[in-house]
Structure formats: structure tokens, C-alpha cells
Specification:
alpha/beta, 2-enoyl-CoA Hydratase, Chain A, domain 1, Lyase 2-enoyl-coa Hydratase, Chain  A, domain 2, four-stranded mixed β-sheet, 11 helices, 10 strands
Amino acid sequence: MTVLYGESAGIAVIALNRPDALNALDLPTLQRLEEMLDMAAASSAADAVVLTGTGSKAFSAGADIKYLSQASPLEVREFARLAVRITHRIENLGKIVVAALNGHALGGGLELAEACMIRIAASHAKLGHPEVRIGAVAGFGGTTRLARLVGKGRAAEMLLRGRIIDAEEALRIGLVQQVASPDALMDAARAILVEILDQSPDAVRLTWEALHRGMNMTLEESAGLGADYFGLVAATENFRIGTEAFVKKVAPDYTRKRVE
């Protein structure tokens, strides 16, 4: 299988599984990844997802260049459109998605990670968009998301030079939120998810939606959306549980049922 799927303790793990090809993304791999994301979305046992890769060298080296070199322009466009659909699916899965970058995340591989809520990189990982070096464009959403994560100037410099950075620089510029040793990477990802999953699932979901949707709005519209979601979450049982626990100075015991 080019993509593996498993669940444990409320967390689904989706792993790109072409280690001999540095987990490069060919058409069957993307199709399989889309299926696994749908499986995670439909699972009542999984409240969060870790997206990672197998092996120690690469999360994903990006699009399979051998496939691209033989494909027609129309086939390349449909390939990219499938990848864009997958990145949108990651962002709108309705569950927390953390990218655990077990190795290099380049090109299309980095674009998958950029669609996740949070990114953690192994200390030896390299990240970048080298597409211009082969006469290509970051066509899976990188020209859009990278600038929103690190700013237009840094994104332009990385994209136009095809520059690859190490994990510590990625942390410094905000492309990743944490760097961990390779052996501790999955534990670090799970620790973040456990902390998030301890919160009200309603508040977590609506906070992410307000953040994600608000990026495409004016400041006034985004703030208004946040106020609307504040009112919506106030109608939930978990809001009552959380506010009463605060008043009583006890830990809240949230119900796991989420607002739909």
C-alpha cells in the first residue's frame, strides 16, 4: 500500500508509504491518500489525524518527477487539481490534522504539510519548494499557503530561489511549530493532539473554522465571524460545562459530542 492507515487512542495516523522513492507523490498515491482522508473523516473513533511518512529520509520529496516528465500537460493539470482537492480536504476535514515531518518535505510534500493545522519537523528534516529548479511552479497550493504562513517576502524568496531550509530555520520563520528528535517526533505530535483534544471539541472546531475562513476575509468580516462563532459556541453544552468549571475552579469534564 502506498499510503497506510491506522487508529489508536482517538488518533488516526496516515502515512505516505513509498520510502524507496522518498515517499514521492504519484497518481495512485494521491488517490489512495484521498481515500484515507475520507476514512479518517468518517471515523467516529478518531478525533484527530497525524499525517506522516514512513522511513527516516523523507516525509515526501514531492511530486513524482518521473511521472510528470512523461505526462501530457492536461494530465499534469488534472494531477495538480487532484492534489489541490486533497489539500482542501485536509484543511476542511472537520478534525485536527498535524503533520509530523519525519524527513525532507519538499515541493508537493511540503504543500501537503502546509495544509495541516500544525507542523512538527524532525531535527534532520529539510523543507522547501525547489519547483523552479526544474522549470515548474508550486502548483498544489504552495504559492498561496506559504505566504500566509511565513509572509509574502519570505515566501517569494523561497519559491523564486527554490531554496531549501533546515528544520531550525523553518521553526524560526514559523513554517513549523516545533522541532523534535526523529525518535520523539510521533510522541511530540501525539502530545500536542492530546492537549488539544482535552479542550471542548466545539470550541476547537469553531476556533479553527474562524481562523481558516477568516484568512479570506477583511479584518472587519473576520472579526464579525469570530463574534458569530462565539455566540454559536455559547449555545453548546460544553460552553456551560467550561464556564461553570471556571467559576467553581475545577477542571472541566467536556462531553465529546461536537456541535454540527
